[in-house]
Amino acid sequence: MRSRKFLVRAGATLVAAAATVTAVTVGVQDREATVGSVGAKTGTGNEVRAGALLQERVAKVQAEQKLPGMIGMVRSGTNTQYAASGYGDMFRRVPADPKAKFRIASNTKAFVATVLLQLEAEGKLSMNDTVDRWLPGLVAANGNDGRKITIRQLLNHTSGLPDYLNDLWISGSYVVDINPHKRWDPRALVKVATSKKSLSAPGTKFNYANTNYILGGLIIQAATGHHPAAEVSSRIIKPLGLTDTTFPEADPKLYGNWLHGYFTIRDISFSNVQVLGAAGAIVSTQEDLADFTRALASGRLLPPAQQRELQQVASDKPYGLGVIMAKTPCGTAWSHNGAALGYFSQWFTSPDGKTQAVVATNRYNMIPGKAETAVVKAAQDSYCALKGQ
After folding, report:
1. Which candidate, 275, 347, 380, 314, places its Cα nearest to that of 107?
2. Are the CB atoms for 151 and 127 separated by under 8 Å?
3. At what angle do helices 108-121 and 286-297 cross, to 10 degrees?
4. 185: Cβ–Cβ under 8 A, 6 or more apart, which residues?
């Protein structure tokens, strides 16, 4: 690796892109595209138009950006339509399946933030608690001071903490992927981050850092006695019936129906999940991700007070607590993206939870570029088509 531009960001690099994305030229491209729909016959004109637009964009982006495969879905009420183009397994020439599992990476953050807000609602912690209240002495070096950083500042990325994934030893090991079973202690990851100078005083500046959510996971464990994966499962995955969603603690493999992920042309599907942990380890599907974001936006997972906290954005970025409040051409939408080795995805959900768009691809080379911007744009445009724009 010759440049810091190659460093792993796992979703950080396109936070702003969810709110403002570069326009792309739209054209019809049907090569290797397949579309399935559920309830399309009873859908409104907007739903049918959104499904057609999604089909067009998925096929066009996949072909123009030379992606192995690309999938998408749009949903309004009970009407869901799917799109796919290219391959889920490039070497065996297996078509991409829009219902297949993939690594959702930083979309994990919304799950973790939700659990912490649930714990606050139960009186077990407060968003105003300091990191040091739960993890004494862990953040205490080079101007990084856990006595001054709150849980809220972790979740909205205003803690000032550096990102451990900017360390070449960690990011290089992850990208090379020689040992996907390598153990990464989350406390050790935090120590690597705090070996670097603090980026800003807590609460003063937005700096996206996966370190924040590693700490969030450790606080969940300190407050409950359980691994964050167990709490996410018992509080979100099982109650919502997300049968194709898992939070692996150590197992790098994928199971069942899944998209192969690629780094350039290398199949990198089985990668280390411990290095991402509470910042990005979840595996899911488009449909499960849409079910979760619908439940979250519609208030099924949080009481009103915590729902309001979830949506409080940072001073200089449209980032709440684990979700982005994106300004789109069709109004404000809840959103986030996820970038992990071999996978990139983007979702938009209406504030009332009634409409969703999700788009994903199975190649990510750890350097964000035109392909990722095009994926975000395809998701946003399909979402706005559902809204009549």
Report:
1. 347
2. yes
3. 30
4. none
Query: Residue 43 has what pLDDT?
Result: 56
Residue 33 has pLDDT above 80, yes or no: no
Look-up: residue for tokens 């070996």?
A: 195
- CA angle 363/365/368 to nearest 5° reads 100
Among 50, 76, 18, 14, residue whose Cα is nearest residue 327: 18
DSSP state of 17: G
What are 181-215's pLDDT values in tens digits? 999 999 999 999 999 999 999 999 999 999 999 99
Coil, helix or strand for 214?
Answer: helix
Report strand pairing: 102-103 vs 283-284: antiparallel
CA dihedral 205, 121, 218, 141 (to 10 degrees): 40
Of the candidates 203, 162, 210, 155, the one whose C-alpha atom is nearest the C-alpha of residue 186 is 210
Tell which residue, 389, 314, 307, 315, has the closest CA to residue 352: 307
Rounded Cα distance between 51 and 72, Å, is: 9
Q: Which amino acid is at 251?
A: D
How far is 293 from 323, CA to CA, in rounded Å? 10
Structure token pair of residue 343:
């996978």
Helical H runs in the chain? 45-64, 108-121, 131-134, 151-155, 168-176, 186-194, 210-224, 228-232, 286-297, 304-310, 370-386
Pair type for strands 262-263 and 144-145? unpaired
